[in-house]
Amino acid sequence: MVVASPNSILGERIIPIDLPMIDLSAEKSMVIKLIVKACEEYGFFNVINHGVPHDIISKMEEVGFDFFAKPMEQKKLVALGNPFGYGCKNIGFNGDMGEVEYLLLNANAPSIPNDSSNFSSSVSAYTEAVKELACEILELMAEGLGVPDTSIFSTFITQLDNDSLLRFNHYPPKDCKDRDNSNSYNVGFGEHSDPQILTILRSNDVAGLQISLQHGVWNPVTPDPAAFCVNVGDLLEVMTNGRFVSVRHRAVTNSYKSRMSVAYFGAPPLDACIVAPSVMVTPNRPSLLFKPFTWAEYKKVTYSLRLGDSRIDLFKNCTQIE
Ligand SMILES: C=C1C[C@]23C[C@@]1(O)CC[C@H]2[C@@]12CC[C@H](O)[C@@](C)(C(=O)O1)[C@H]2[C@@H]3C(=O)O
Ligand SMILES: O=C(O)CCC(=O)C(=O)O
Ligand SMILES: [Fe+2]
């Protein structure tokens, strides 16, 4: 008989890993090398000494938990026009479900109506700080890749009409005895890749994030509230001509403690053209792996698909030999 362990689903292998931990205050050329290596091998890494003030993080965490502690009727009133606002269990528009409640906000105006607890000011301060961190990391990446214009990636998310998002995910404890469906009982946020350029994720000290470096194998990541977990999104995979990998990940629930994660998704303006700069075409990658497209085109496809569907494959150049 095969028995699922609390954090596994039948047939999956669970192998914990330690993500690269990168100290942003270390010597710059070393930091750059470590970031490039992590993006090639894991698509994920943690950063410490990131410069985001502790009080900004703790205030954001406080108002986030306060928001989810409100009565359901109040939370449901936070409908900010699709896809923004509060949601519970439904993810996206195509039938995906998970043991999660969330608040999805426009990162350029991360506010909620009837804000009685400084939610908007605390969350705006947080968003500004992580956006700066995202820019710094994107510039280090460009330098490490040898791209002549080191602001090539960061300018996308600093443009006024950038399409970046901020998402609060709250995973209440879920008693595994409640399970009625062995395929979904402990999945808070199902398997997917992030469509945007770069994600900066933070969670409280409760485990839940898992990444998949190999099909059928899930690697739980140890939470570190002092660090930010950074991951490569689909657009960055495209703009590095496949050198950096946008890795599939998911979040699982546990039966003892609430988990809250907050993700900043750095995205370009809708009309931005996404294509790898010529320096990314090398003897190892002698042609463009992906067709050029706009973020609006990619986003439209993303929202027409299920959470776990691969979007990036649809933009591969057909001359490519698998
Ligand atoms: C099912 C879906 C939810 C999602 C849009 C999509 O159609 C496919 C991608 C999903 C995702 C995953 C990463 C982010 O959490 C997110 C905000 C995004 O940009 O793409 C979500 C979308 C969502 O929940 O609206
Ligand atoms: O909660 C997490 O750790 C992951 C959430 C996530 O992947 C997302 O919001 O896109
Ligand atoms: Fe994600």
TrEMBL record:
Domain of life the protein comes from: Eukaryota
Enzyme Commission identifier(s): 1.14.11.13
GO MF terms held by the record: gibberellin 2-beta-dioxygenase activity; metal ion binding
Pathway linked to the protein: Plant hormone biosynthesis; gibberellin biosynthesis; Hormone biosynthesis
Record InterPro entries: DIOX_N, IPNS-like_FE2OG_OXY, IPNS-like_sf, Iron_ascorbate_oxido_reductase, Oxoglu/Fe-dep_dioxygenase_dom
Pfam families, per the entry: 2OG-FeII_Oxy, DIOX_N
Gene Ontology biological process terms from the UniProt entry: gibberellin catabolic process; response to light stimulus
Ranges for domain Fe2OG dioxygenase: 161-268
Reactions mediated catalytically: gibberellin A1 + 2-oxoglutarate + O2 = gibberellin A8 + succinate + CO2
Keywords: Dioxygenase, Iron, Metal-binding, Oxidoreductase
SUPFAM superfamilies: Clavaminate synthase-like
UniProt record similarity statement: Belongs to the iron/ascorbate-dependent oxidoreductase family. GA2OX subfamily.
Listed name of the protein: gibberellin 2beta-dioxygenase
Species, as recorded: Medicago truncatula
